[in-house]
Every structure is written in C-alpha cells, then in structure tokens.
Predict the structure.
Amino acid sequence: MAGLRCNVVTPTESVLESEATYVEFPAWDGQKGVAPGAAPFLVRLGEGRLRIEKPTGGSDVFLLDGGFAQMNGGTLTILADSVTVASALKADDADKELAAANSEGLKRGTLDARSSAEHRQRLAYARVALARSSRR
C-alpha cells in the first residue's frame, strides 16, 4: 500500500512535512480520519485537534483553527488559518480564554458578533481539552 504524505501549512509558514500512517482532523461537520489510499477530497476545517500518527510510532498533536484540507495523489495538505503545538498549550491560560469566550457568548449582538463569539468558544473548548490532555 502506498504511504501517506502530510503537509501542514499556514499562510505564513510550513509547520510540518512528514510521512504518516493516519491523520485525524476536525472538518467543519465533525472529525475526519485519513489513511493511506484515501480518495481525493477537499473539505473545510473546523476547530480542534489535529493528530498525525507517524510510521515510526508516536504522533504529533496540534490545535487547529479553520482552513482547508485537500487529499490528492497520496498527499494530505492541511492549509490552516492557525496551528499551535498541543504541548505548548497551558491549561491555566486555556481556562482563562474559555471563561472570556463564554462571557462574550452571553452578550447579545449582531449575527456576526454572535458567530464570532461561538467560534471563540469552540476554539477555547478545544484548547482546554488539548492543554489538559497534554499535561498527563
């Protein structure tokens, strides 16, 4: 079976170029998993955990915030709005961000303001989950 190449980029940098045995990421409508031999696709990304399992064992874990993923010719390219290494997340900072996002979400406002607040809440929940899991 052919391998899976995974490239993670943001508008300002190339974050990772690696072989992978499996990649899991948040699509706009839920988690998606990709293994070698996957059919081509293009999907909008959501907020949450990006996990890249390596052929040598272990995995790289990131907090992903939006963008697009494209599978084509054995290469998965993740073009993310932003990516943070999960091990760099601090639980206390993540808890504060979640409290601020929840407070903002309680305010009434325009549709755009509420949409922005909901995005911040989803990202903050993902940040808290990753920060707590990486402490273990």
User: Anything to note?
Assistant: DSSP finds two helices and seven strands in the chain. Residues 89-135 form one domain. The helical segments are 91-106, 111-135.
